[in-house]
Structure formats: structure tokens, C-alpha cells
Amino acid sequence: QRYDMVNQATSEVIWDWDIRTHTVWWNDNFYLQYGHDRIETPRSFENWIKQIHPEDWPRVEATLNAALAGSGTLWTSQYRFRHRQGEYAQVDASAIIQRDAAGKALRMVGSIRDITELRQADQRLAEAADRYDKMLRATKDAFWLVDADSGRILDVNAAAETQSGYSREELLQLRVPDIDVVYDPEQLGQSIAEILQMGWGVIETRHRTQSGRIIDVEVSTLPDAGQRNLIAFIRDITLRKQAELELLQTRDRLEAMLTAMPDLMFHITRDGTFLDFRRVNPEHLYLPPDQFLGKTVREVLPQPASDIIMSALATAITEGTVHGVNYSLPLPQGLNWYELSAARMQTGATDEPEVILLVRDITTRKQQEQQLRLSEQRHRILAENLKDVIWAMRPDGLITYVSPAVEQVRGYTPEEALRQPIEQILAPAARASAVEYLESLGADLQAGRPPRSYRGEQEYYRKDGSIFWAEVTAVPLLREDGTLVELIGVSRDIDERKRYEEQLKLARDAADRANAAKSQFLAHMSHEIRTPMNAVLGLTQLLEREPLTPGQAAMIRHIGEAGDSLLRIINDILDFSKIEAGELHVDSRDF
Predict the structure, then answer these.
(1) How many CA atoms lie within 13 A of 431 on its CB side?
(2) Which of 288, 308, 374, 474 could form a disulfide with 489 if both were Cys (CB 3.0 to 4.6 A apart)?
(3) pLDDT by residue (tens digit) across 379-417?
(4) Please, which residues bridge with residue 91 across strands?
(5) Are 521 and 490 in contact (CB under 8 A)?
């Protein structure tokens, strides 16, 4: 009765083999579990053997014969058992061997248990373990199995050896604090407790390798189910940290550059809507932010400026960038000029492109350019209308500019004059003088002395081969570092003046010769007159001593006075002659 109850309660196939009669019995589970028909497969030893896989039967038979031949009472085996449809199930067979007093096997009573699902589970477990092992071997991340209580490393993969520089044997002798340079044992214990409580954890820390090098790592940790262990995957993020640091430094540099730039920056959609902006000085904005953010360019700016900006946006969208677009805006203090540069920014694979605008206030530059244009225009008018030749010459003697007056003065057009070497411009003596000045100018600059200007008269060649005189003034133009850029000069034609001076000199020489002849004549004449006059005056004085009538005395007196007067005139003429000849001597006497 007890046997029947067990037979009905179990799901296993119970069998009974009488070895002496070679008869076999099995319970109904044989038919229920494996689908065999009672008529097709009656209970027999042969039918039992037929259900065992042909590849397994030799092994099963060998173990069975060995068990029967031995003295033991237990037999076990595992083999594949056929289902009626031809499929095989994995079974676990076991039996008790009943023997006689002599030890001969008389009977075997046993069971077979379907372990197909168990075998499949074992297979899946083995496959999972194999995959797990392959994953641990294939991953570049280090794997640690860590005792949660002591922090000791219990197991590692090959990547852990590569990452740390320690061998597996060395790692299994270490605790986490022996490698981690950030967490002390107390902090590590707190971190492990949090991981055990939360069920997971990811931290960034730093590890010291066997060589002493410090690396940045990211540790992802999970509790080992049913164990006081932690499964940790450690990823070397040193390069990532360096990249993050470089990115941070790049961002800081970019931030500093943006802060240092005087430009306004705007983030705008392709339809011209203002999304964001950046500025250093709020006074540079045309409108307060609340009056233009979220609005379009055409809504907030005058039409001329908005047309230019929208055209630049379209160019940036199609071509990627646009530079140097100028526009103006009317401000209370006057018209301000701006220079715009734009670059397309793609925010995503499918998103509409947007544009970054850089806007620089160039009002001062525009004013300077206008002043420069006016100045250039004034100088051009002066240079083109002056009769003097204005020129510029490099230190190597190359002429870089000649005013139009050169054609009137020398007969060459400005284009022809620019191509001439100095040998075709200056006469030999003038060239020597120019070279001497350039050498002295170079010496002054080399010694740090203030450069001297040049002023002098030089002989120039005309196109017809003739030579003329010019008055030359040259001023050195220097760079900020004191080096010579070029000489700026003015050459004035003084050939006519030179001819006039020569004629004047000839006339003066002729006058001097005439004056000399006149003086010589006067001196000779006065000498010839004074000699007889002295005789007349001497005889007059002798007559005054003679007895004379009053009438005679008066006549003699008149003769003497007239002679004295004439003698004074002669002396005055001689003095004038001496003055003209430069031979007059003045005596200093009391008066």
C-alpha cells in the first residue's frame, strides 16, 4: 500500500527489473510523460532499451553490467530517453540492486527523472557564464570583485591587470584603499554602505597604478546577489578628464575672448528672429533687449539696415559664412556705422540652420576713412596743380611716387619717371650728394640720432638730355620703430633763377669794373687839377703880402676863396673814390 501511494504521488517513472526472469515493470508515468502507447510498447526489457539513445546505450550498458557484477547496491546513470515523437529527453536514472546471500544480483528497482529542463538551465547557465567570462576578457574596463566588509579584492579580469600594472596575484593581496587615492577607509565604508542600500552606484575617483602614475577612473558598482560582495567595473577616464579639462580651458578662453571682443554677438534664426545676444557694453545696443528679443530684424531695424542684414543672413545660410558687410543706423548722437560677419550654425541633423552674427561698431573708422579720403583728395589736388615735383623714394633709391608736374619740369610722364633708376634722374655730382645724404641718414638712424632733413641744389636730367638746376628739399618718413620707410621730397625748377643770378653776377662784375675805371679817372683828374690849383693858391697867398689897392686886395681874396672851395670839392671827389675802392681810412679825433 505504501509503495502504491508513492507510485501515485511521484512524477518519476518507477521501474522494476527481475533479473532472474528478465521481466520489467514500469508505472504509468512512462506512458504519460513520454507519450508511448501501452499496446505498441508493452513492458519489456527490450522495449526499455529501445528508448535509450543509441549513442548512450553502450555507456549505460557498461555501467549497468559493472554494477551487477560488483557488490554494490546502488546504480546511477544519465542518458537520453526517447519520446514517442522521436525527441529525446535528458533523464537521471537510479536504482537499488537486490542481491542474494552470495551477492548475486537478483532484482533492480529504480526510477528515471526527466532533467531536460535542468540540463537546459545548466546549459543556459554555462552559456551565460561563458558569455560573462568572455565579456570580462573582452571589455577594456577593469573588473573587481570586492569584499564589502574588508574592501579586499577577491577577483579581477585581465583588463584590471593592464589598467593597474599589477599582476592578478598582486591585486588579490590588496584592498581598495591601497589603490584609491581619494577615498580613505572610512569614506570607502560609507560609500559601500550607500551602494548596498541603493543597489547600485557610480563614482569618479583616482587610482594609483603600480608605477605610481595617477589615473582618473569611473567606478560602476553593483552588489553581488546573495553575497556581501561588490561587483565593480572600473573605466579609465584619464583621457576623458583631460579632454574635459581642455574643453573647460577652451571654453574659458573662448569666454575671455568673447568678453574681450568689442563686438556685439547675436543668435538669429534663418528668418531673422533674435534668439539671444551677448554684449560687453549695453550702450552699444540699438534697442533694449526686451524690445528686440523674440522679434525679427525687419520688425526692429530700419529698412535699409534690415535689407542688408537679411541679405547677409541668406548668404551665410547658403555659403556658410559672410564677412565685412557694412550698414548704418541712425542714433541720437548721429549716424553710426557697423560691420557685420555671419556664420551658419547647424543645431541638429533635421533642425533648421541658425546664424551667429558678430557686429562691430566702425563709426570711428568710417570717420577716419572719410577724413583720410578728404586729406588724400586735398593732397592729390595740391600735388597735381603745383609746379613743383613731389616725389617719394625708398631707401634703395626706387621712386615710388611722382606728381604730374614732373612732365612739365623734366618732360617725362609720371609712369615713365617711376621706372627710371636714379642714374637717369640725377647728374653725377647730384647722385654723389644724394648717396652721401642717404649714408649719413642711415648712420644717424643706426646711432639713434634724430634724422636730418636735406636741403640743397641738384642738377637733373630732362628727357631731351639737357640738364637743369632744381632746389631739393627731402624729409625722412619713419616707422614707429624708427626705421626708414621712404623719403618725401619736393624738387623746384630754379634753372631760370640760376640764369638770372648768372646774368646779375655778370652785370655786377661789369659795374665793378666801370666803377674802378671811374675812380681811377677821378683820382687822376683830381691829381691833375689839384697840382696847378695848389700853384694858384700859393701865388694868391704871395700876392696878398704885396701892397695892394683895396680893389686889388678884394679880387685877390675872391680868387683865394674860390680856389679853396674848388680844392675842397676835389678832395671830396677823391674821398668818394677811396670809399668805392675800399681804401678810405677814418681817423678818430676829438671834436
Answers:
(1) 10
(2) 474
(3) 666 656 567 899 999 888 889 999 999 999 999 999 999
(4) 79, 114
(5) no
Averaged pLDDT for residues 240-256: 82
DSSP states along 19-41: TTTTEEEE-THHHHHH---TTTS
Which residue's entry shows cell 502507447? 37
Q: Is 408 helix (H, G, I), strand (E, B) or coil?
A: helix
Task: Give 319: exposed, middle or buried? Use CB within 10 Å, 0-12, 13-18, 19+.
Answer: exposed
Confidence of residue 568 (pLDDT cuts 50, 70, 90): confident
List domains and CATH numbers for the chain: 2-121 (3.30.450.20), 139-242 (3.30.450.20), 263-367 (3.30.450.20), 386-493 (3.30.450.20), 499-581 (1.10.287.130)
- Phi first, then psi, for residue 468 (nearest 5°) are -135, 160
Of residues 315 and 572, more confidently modeled: 315
| SS3 at position 471 | strand
Give the Cα separation of 452 and 440 in Å (integer).
9
Which residues make beta-bridge pairs with 14? 111
| Cα separations in angstroms, 313 against 22, 61, 93, 197, 318 | 101, 90, 84, 57, 9
The set of cell numbers assigned to 173 is: 593581496
Q: Which of 222, 109, 214 is nearest to 164 (CA)?
A: 214
Res 455: pLDDT = 92
Q: How far apart are CA 372 and CA 240, in angstroms?
A: 54
Which set of grid coordinates corresponds to residue 186? 572610512
List the grid coordinates of 188. 570607502
DSSP 292: T
Task: pLDDT band for 553, please (50, 70, 90 cuts).
Answer: confident
Question: Cβ(164)–Cβ(179) under 8 Å?
Answer: yes
pLDDT of residue 523: 66
Quickly list DSSP for 481-550: TS-EEEEEEEEEE-HHHHHHHHHHHHHHHHHHHHHHHHHHHHHHHHHHHHHHHHHHHHHHHHHHTS---H
Name residue 46's amino acid. E
At 458, phi and psi to the nearest 5? Answer: -130, 155
Measured in degrees and rounded to the nearest 5, phi and psi for residue 559 equal -65, -45
Residue 89: Cβ within 10 Å count = 18
Per-residue pLDDT reduced to its tens digit, 490-510: 999 888 888 888 888 888 888
